[in-house]
Amino acid sequence: MAHMSRQGQVATGHEALSVLADRGYFSGEQILACDQAGIAVTLPKPLTSGAKAEGRFGKQDFVYEAEADTYRCPAGEQLSYRYTNVEEGLTLRRYWTTACHGCALKARCTPAKERRVTRWEHEAVLEAVQRRLDADPHAILTRRQTVEHVFGTLKSGVGATHFRTRQLRNVATEMSLQVLAYNLKRVLAVLGTGLLLTALRA
């Protein structure tokens, strides 16, 4: 996502860029790279935790309080910072409280001794993404309306078949030709033949 977004910056000539993507592109490292390049990303976070599916509180139900560097749980308890470790190159901070054993909501929270929350060192960047999504919940619908019909049209034009060529280089060429044909048809539909020919001669 970061690579394509930076190409978008170059193509448009705008350093400050807003990017909409679907949840399949969610990656903390990619979002951080976009943020560092001045690109504001909006995309939903995949719900990979089994807690929500099992009817328990998810991480999103715990509120981070930056000044105290603690999390407030749904029962109002404060989960304090305990230690930091590194997993798969990510620096992660761990939080929990010892008040879980006497909590009336424990059954809705965790089957473990206490509920632990993990915070990435750049979690604030991901929280900014969520705030943008909360402020514009229709953004993803806009992305679908803008992008998905393109793929539908391409599939319709090619038919329900596999690529006719083999090997990555050949398939990439075949796909590029399909996209070029689509773009030309769109330009003709939007601008008309006269303007397109004028632009081609320039």
Automatic annotation (TrEMBL):
Domain (Transposase DDE) ranges: 73-187
From the Swiss-Prot or TrEMBL record, give the protein name. Answer: Transposase DDE domain-containing protein
Whose protein is this, by species?
Methylobacterium oxalidis
Query: What domain of life?
Result: Bacteria
**Pfam hit, one:** DDE_Tnp_1_6
Q: Which PANTHER family match?
A: TRANSPOSASE, TRANSPOSASE DDE DOMAIN-CONTAINING PROTEIN
